[in-house]
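Hello support,

Our group uses your service weekly, and this is the first time we've seen a run hang past the timeout. The protein is Mobilization protein. I'm not sure whether the cause is the sequence or the server load. Input pasted verbatim:
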Amino acid sequence: MTKENTLKPDHRLTVRFNKNELAKLENWLKKSTYHRNMSELIRHLLFKKEITINTYDASLDRLYEELVLVKKELNAIGVNINQVTHYFNADPDPSQKLIYAKKIAPLYEGTTQKIEKLFDLLSELAQRWSLE
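Update from on-call engineer: The timeout came from a worker crash unrelated to the input. Re-ran successfully.
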């Protein structure tokens, strides 16, 4: 017996569904990532095989956008800190180093604020995940 014969069903069965039942099946088929057509879905349902359904929570989009924004802002602050640090280390004049040190202090404060915002967003995300 070849592999094709074992996988391909060879008996046809006709079944009728009302509108609500059909809508429910179509909804499951849309959400399923494994089933290519209605027949596969119904076979899995009949024989109690596990069906994988992916869900999407659109309310998390705002959180994801804010996380991306905070990441970009932290990256920009990090680039600025690296530039000032480079100038600080390259300049032999101690008075000039003091100027660079004064420039870098607000950047570190900005980093602290962004990290606090990041932790707030992550805790909100963790709360949502723990509720599901």
